[in-house]
Amino acid sequence: xxxxxxxxxxxxxxxxxxxxxxxxxxxxxxxxxxxxxxxxxxxxxxxxxxxxxxxxxxxxxxxxxxxxxxxxxxxxxxxxxxxxxxxxxxxxxxxxxxxxxxxxxxxxxxxxxxxxxxxxxxxxxxxxxxxxxxxxxxxxxxxxxxxxxxxxxxxxxxxxxxxxxxxxxxxxxxxxxxxxxxxxxxxxxxxxxxxxxxxxxxxxxxxxxxxxxxxxxxxxxxxxxxxxxxxxxxxxxxxxxxxxxxxxxxxxxxxxxxxxxxxxxxxxxxxxxxxxxxxxxxxxxxxxxxxxxxxxxxxxxxxxxxxxxxxxxxxxxxxxxxxxxxxxxxxxxxxxxxxxxxxxxxxxxxxxxxxxxx
Length: 358
Hints:
There is one protein chain. By secondary structure, the protein is α/β, with parallel strands linked by helices. Helices cover 36% and strands 14% of the residues. The chain has helices at 3-13, 30-35, 37-46, 61-64, 85-96, 111-118, 149-155, 177-186, 211-220, 234-244, 256-265, 275-283, 296-299, 331-334, 338-351, and strands at 22-25, 52-56, 70-75, 102-105, 123-127, 138-140, 194-198, 224-227, 248-250, 268-272, 287-290, 307-309. Helix 4 links the parallel strand 2 (52-56) and strand 3 (70-75). Helix 9 packs parallel to helix 15. The protein is globular and about 60 Å long. It starts with a helix and ends in a 7-residue tail after the last helix.
């Protein structure tokens, strides 16, 4: 089944008398959080009259502001290392005020079900997992048979047992042009064509090793280059700036909103398989994704991307999906030459009619 047919069926079967809000509890990694906007879109097709709220951490909260179809984000930072029952009760009290009719729990953890149960949300949907008997009341089975995270997450937004499409609606992040212009002005970036580089990723094995050379090549062609990422990428950004010259700016920092606006303002993004790859693609900025230990089929954005770059050499151990190279050679990334990334970048910029400035 394709999603267009499913959407038509959902529209025909939609119960428009249902108006109670729906709470979505997504994964709290940036890329996974973006992917879960697909779930929002499916929910709005199934229940057009029901508001959708999203539980979020402080880190991911800026993303909610740019997600069409989301009424509000419930910002709550629960500790990762313990149950934190007092914090769970406080969160449940906040949730209870909204009178949610349904909660969709994406993570398979016990902790993720506590607040929805304490809040008395009538319908609590999730996959069987981690000692959650009695915590959920709309059990779903067969998670391991679903090949991609988007399949597992979006399935929870549909009635149990329904045939799932493979072409889910892609996530969307809509950043107003006025916000982008104000951000450029506040950072003194002018209106010159710019390429954003996102060299970070969870785990060193997912990090391409030639970002400095790519930044230098782009700057030498006359393009501005912005290094985007969290505080963990600041040291690398400093090295890139020192090696590639004054056209390169370090825009790393602790505020994800700054990164979102940079990716929206850029004319092209080059990124590892990371959360920022999904942010850029969902915004609609032309994006090149570099994949080493991970499979693009499983982890590339649903949104169209300009190019997916993988090594052309035979690396028998890939994809291993491990954050650290177990073979200690990191060939899946080291064997990707800088030209394999910069050449499609230059083609994309030229196709967009962007000329470098000197």
